[in-house]
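Re: that backbone. Tokens:
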């Protein structure tokens, strides 16, 4: 089973587990809240009956028991309103310093409770036109907390899922990095032996055929292979940056690509007259520009068009832009161009831009992105390096 398939399955399981936990938590909390609300309603009915008894006692009334019931409510907010809507008593409600204003506020709160159906009407005697009081109550603090708790729990579960998925993606990236580093170093190691042999054979050919004009070109290609092997060997280790000229790097790439592309491809160097110097690893950064230039060549329709290497600087940054007049990138693909394995070519591994991004951002603390692209007109890649 592929690692990506395993990651996808684990993410689906985590999401399903989060949904199940959330639904179960909401269902259980709803049931508990409903039961507790009914229990508080029953308590309020007993409390209201105690208030009626206290207001209309008889010779058999145990006032101590009635007062004990009334005083026993220490959690449920209660407002007692008379038939005219005035507050006659209240419990478990904070009041301000101004008693008159506070009673008006409490009476308004009682009316709100009454409108919400949280009121128990108690007649003060048994006559048909007897006066009455309304015992209005609100949810206790415990009930309110219980109503909020499932949403807090749901948030915790979501955070757990996000952290878990992030950990999985991080481990996946770490594993990919190990594969990248191992593959790069193994490639450099495997290239080392044949390159050494080619260098020895080239020296022998120089001695045997000193006048042959092809041997120097062969020597250049061998040196090129040596440079490529050196680049691969540096992947995975932090290269030591040195002060180097971006003008020279871009000129080298332009000259190299110009010799190896069709005459229909025009490569333009748009460089300032003065050297733009930044701290970098020239070999690796030249690799980045080569990858962008090669992609630009591949993007040119019918093998003809223009590639421009542009360099400018600001007081804080050096800016490189590699543009082409090729087929462009579809908008839906722009976000994926730097993803390992993504490619629109019939032949290709989809690793060049991913390596370029790693070299620019991890080794040079810079930025690389698609500045603009339009299908049928071309693409501009932009690199920003701090000076």
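Recovered sequence:
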């Amino acid at each position: 089973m592929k690692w990506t398939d395993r990651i996808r399955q684990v993410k689906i399981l985590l999401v399903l587990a989060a949904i199940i936990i959330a639904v179960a938590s909401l269902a259980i909390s709803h049931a508990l809240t409903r039961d507790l609300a009914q229990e508080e309603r029953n308590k309020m009915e007993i409390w209201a009956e105690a208030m009626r008894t206290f207001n209309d006692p008889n010779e058999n009334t145990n006032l101590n028991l009635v007062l004990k019931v009334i005083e026993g409510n220490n959690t449920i907010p209660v407002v007692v309103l008379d038939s005219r809507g005035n507050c006659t008593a209240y419990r478990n409600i904070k009041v301000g310093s101004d008693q008159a204003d506070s009673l008006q506020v409490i009476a308004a709160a009682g009316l709100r409770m009454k409108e919400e159906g949280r009121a128990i009407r108690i007649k003060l005697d048994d006559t048909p036109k007897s006066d009455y009081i309304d015992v209005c109550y609100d949810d206790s603090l415990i009930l309110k907390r219980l109503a909020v708790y499932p949403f807090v729990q749901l948030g915790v579960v979501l955070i757990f899922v996000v952290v878990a998925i992030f950990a999985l993606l991080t481990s996946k990236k770490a594993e990919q990095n190990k594969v990248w580093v191992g593959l790069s170093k193994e490639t450099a190691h495997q290239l080392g032996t044949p390159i050494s042999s080619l260098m020895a054979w080239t020296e022998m050919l120089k001695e045997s055929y000193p006048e042959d004009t092809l041997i120097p070109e062969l020597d250049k290609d061998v040196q090129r292979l040596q440079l490529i092997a050196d680049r691969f060997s540096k992947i995975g280790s932090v290269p030591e940056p040195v002060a180097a000229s971006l003008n020279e790097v871009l000129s080298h790439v332009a000259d190299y690509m110009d010799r190896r592309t069709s005459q229909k491809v025009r490569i333009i160097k748009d460089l300032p007259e003065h050297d733009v110097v930044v701290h970098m690893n020239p070999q690796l950064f030249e690799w980045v520009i080569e990858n962008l230039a090669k992609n630009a060549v591949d993007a040119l329709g019918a093998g003809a068009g223009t590639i421009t290497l542009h360099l400018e600087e600001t007081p804080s940054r050096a800016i490189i832009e590699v543009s082409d007049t090729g087929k462009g990138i579809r908008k839906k693909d722009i976000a994926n161009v730097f993803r390992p394995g993504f490619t629109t070519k019939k032949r290709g591994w989809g690793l060049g831009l991913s390596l370029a991004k790693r070299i620019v951002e991890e080794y040079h603390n810079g930025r690389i992105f698609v500045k603009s692209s339009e299908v049928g007109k071309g693409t501009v890649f932009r690199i920003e390096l701090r000076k």
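The longest helix spans residues 141-208. The CA atoms of residues 22 and 154 lie 6 Å apart.
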